[in-house]
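Hey, weird one. I pasted the Glycosyltransferase family 4 protein sequence into the form twice and got a warning about non-standard characters only the second time. First submission, copied straight from the form history:
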Amino acid sequence: MRVALVHSYHHSDVPSGENVVVDAQVEALAAAGHEAVVVAQDNDTRSRRRTYPLEAAATVVTGIGPDPSEMLRRLAPDVVHVHNLFPNFGTRWLARWQGPLVATLHNFRPICPAGTLLRDGHHCTDCVVAPMSAVRHRCFQHSRVASLPLALATRGGATRHPVVARADRLIAISDRAAAEYRAVGVEPRRLVVVPNAVPDEGLGEVRSAVEHEVAPRWLFVGRLSAEKGARELLERWPAGLPIDLVGAGEIGDELAAAFAHRPEVRFLGAMPNTQVRALVGRYTGLVVPSLWAEAGPPLTYVEALASGVPVVAVAGNGAADDVAARGTGVVVGKGTDSSELAVALKDVQRDRARLSPHCRAVYEAHYSTGAWVQALLDVYREATHG
């Protein structure tokens, strides 16, 4: 099968699970004997122009912008798979494209200008009925000006969003995400749940259970931004227990200064995905404190499972849903205090020898690239045959 993936790559200096997924899908399809080609735009190139902010805003509002149709016609794919068009591809071409088209809903942007369904630490769907709420609350990049184009683009509701309206099949990456889209009127028959996967290659050395008992160390990987919950995690983090934070973001410097007196808290900065994959197996466990619902389990969670690393996750996020469903660690409440968090961490450390092979088995059954490719091919066939 020949598949054309359409994707606007996010900035390379900001960790992006969407970018990783697209690249992994190309490799996985090729390994399975299929042809996959990415038709791309990228923020690194386009944002060098002084007029870029205005161009991007106009594209978001009007749908007029770079059009992949000519390249797609030359490729003549069996199916087009749209991942991310924001903000560098136009959307008007979608209505004109005649072939089978599948889209992955990596976030909630057709419902929420911020893409997170989160405001002030709480689940928010105000924009479902009043999209201009995003402008009033500065939901995108903490700016009314930046929020305006997205608010205008979502004013017709999720079902009229160009990607949602056109796709023959819509891939949600979790049951939670599928439920959010069904709740705003997206037809259940077009929604298919296919979790993202990560390849097995590039995983580093895994420490023994004894090493974790003697010298436990925990890991956080993600953007250092408010919705990721790093601040709340560190405020409750048990004294003396080592944790490394991998990532950068708008509150990174603030967090580093606020917790400089805690030698057990180390800020390692941003790392390429390959380096993170090589490191994760050395840790006792991964901590996922995200405050927002997330469209599905983050790739860092899946990478941890692939390395046999259990997870402590805060209730309400995509990793926590999976931890609760598959027993890959412990879920703690959003209001968990330091002592309760310490108990959860200790429980995972104590049970790590049992949890590690179970986490690996969950990865192989649900998140391996082999299972992923088969699920994608099934969706492509459904889209092709109606």
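That's the output from the first submission. The warning seems to come from a hidden character in my clipboard, not from the data itself. The first strand starts at residue 2 and ends at 9.
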